[in-house]
Amino acid sequence: MAELEDSESPSRKYVLVSGGVISGVGKGVITSSVGTLLKSYGLRVTAIKIDPYLNIDAGTFSPYEHGEVFVLDDGGEVDLDLGNYERFLDITLHRDNNITTGKIYQHVIEKERRGDYLGKTVQVIPHVTDAIQEWVQKVATVPVDGSGLMPQVCIIELGGTIGDIEGMPFVEAFRQFQFTVGQENFCNIHVSLVPQPGNTGEQKTKPTQNSVRQLRGLGLSPDLIVCRSISPLEESVKQKISNFCHVSPKQVVAIHDCTSIYRVPLLLKQQGVLDFLFKRLHLPVKPGSCSPQTICKWKNLADRYDKPYQPVVIAIVGKYTKLEDSYISVIKALRHAALLYQLKLHIKWIEATHLENEVKEEDPVKFHEAWKTLCDSQGVLVPGGFGCRGTDGKIAAAEWARTKRIPYLGVCLGMQVAVIEFARNVFGWKDANSVEFNPSTTHPVVIEMPEHNPGNLGGTMRLGKRKTLFKTKDSTLRKLYKNVDSVEERHRHRYEVNPDYVKEFESQNLQFVGQDEVGQRMEMLELKDHPYYVAVQYHPEYLSRPLNPSPPYLGLILAAANKLNSFISRGCNISPRLSYDYTSGDDDEDDEVTQALYANSQ
Questions:
Q1: Which CATH code, of 3.20.110.10, 3.30.450.20, 1.10.40.30, 3.40.50.880, is assigned to 304-571?
Q2: pTM for the model
Q3: Is 539 a catalytic residue?
């Protein structure tokens, strides 16, 4: 643990991470990595994501529009970047940590309707910009690490790119904010792209120059310029950016494409980002007080990712497979589980509709390719989703896994289709369905929840962390959860298994091993006499962490690699050969490890 000089410093520090040239340049990873390094010095860190769109939250987005909707403990449906913050920093954020233009304008208009502005003309400046500043300062005081203490550093990621018209009120707000909190308590990290055209191979600095010029024209000066590039940044390019962007060479940080995101904190540390922040923000820590365990943790993660010893192939049967960000938490949860056992994860994407018989006649090539991919996989995962498109394909995948004894994990809708498939093919109820897909079915094995309000889609689902009680001790899932009596996981669904059919299912070995606190909602199911046929109504991927993978996902990975039985026989402890080695040492040794790693990565 770092030695704090003043653990209750009256001045809270703010780090704004902006982006230039293109969106998706890596601001989220930079934000998470900076926060991780600050935490390694014992600082309490929180994070805010600003999305300059008019939606109130991300709940009604199509996954193709904006990627995955991430759900927090309090039920907030937020941007997927908050998932990155939680996974990297191991903190619990709240719905107000995601600021949107819609939330800000709603807040301002509500104040205007109440007469809070005393008859004044309500304008973007000062009323909207003041609301943004007040929101940031309020959220920055909310504890997020379980200690009950207020954060000392707040990292704010400004979505989009500098110059976007919808982001202008936020840029202006932070131009004012730097003077409100004092420039010694505020710094700006600007993340920009350094493209490298394939025909010449030359790294181009002009886009970064233009982006920084635009940022300065709006009243913000970058304290650090993080240059994203395909290959390591050449020293001459770094010097050129320094000259034209009015910063010293030490303020130009190069982050090239790495083998994994776990190397990014190491690269930032090696290039002196922390030393710069200590001096620039007068952070209340003593330089050199970092715990070597933190750096060793990230080095171990990166090495495990780069040096697997056995491949494992998992098929994800979904509806939004054209955009991997639609399932980013699912992918992360699978990788966390594979990393624990140092397995090389191969994800095979299967568009659910391609497994359906209708496609067989329309496009037989797609049909046969999809089924070949499914047959060649060692495990099957059916994630959540909404709407009837692709449902029959997911049901077919569940049947394949059940009858061929292939490890299967169903999440949310994946649990519901497992129940529908079982009802159709074991009980012979050919019209068994969810009322979401067929309201007039004679066997509604999946029904709508009573509190669901179909007239208002935003925020009306069963959302957030809820408790699940285990019904039996003889359960694979219970063993994976270390034999606890209950677990708390995050939910996001409108439909549930019909409790009227539970006894019939359980009479045929489809066991509902977990339920809610009142025994009404089925939360977990397992198929007896199967290597691993498991489904859950909640979304376990939201709470998966790099060093603490989600138990249902870990079970799928281990079952697919034929390691589940040995893992359970050891009390769900990994082999000593694979355990993390947190080597202690002084800071000089730690820096040598980091520098060697950085050199090898280049």
A1: 3.40.50.880
A2: 0.89
A3: yes
pLDDT at residue 201 in the model:
78
Pick the more confident residue, 342 or 172: 172
Q: Where are the domains of the chain?
A: 13-288, 304-571
What is the DSSP track for 522-577? EEEEEETTSSSEEEESS-GGGG-BTTB--HHHHHHHHHHTT-HHHHHHTTS---GG
Asked about 541 being catalytic, the answer comes back as: yes
- pLDDT for 455-513, tens place per residue? 555 556 788 999 999 998 889 999 999 999 999 999 998 899 999 999 999 999 999 99
The whole-angstrom separation of Cα 381 and Cα 287 is 46
pLDDT tens readout for residues 257-309: 988 888 999 999 999 999 899 999 998 776 555 666 777 778 888 888 888 77
The DSSP string of 371-401 is: HHHHHT-SEEEE----SSTTHHHHHHHHHHH
Assess whether the region 13-288 and the region 304-571 belong to the same CATH fold.
yes
* 572 among known catalytic residues: no
Which CATH number fits the domain 13-288, given the four candidates 3.40.50.10800, 3.30.465.10, 3.40.50.300, 3.90.280.10?
3.40.50.300
Query: Which listed residue (245, 412, 493, 530) is catalytic?
Result: 412
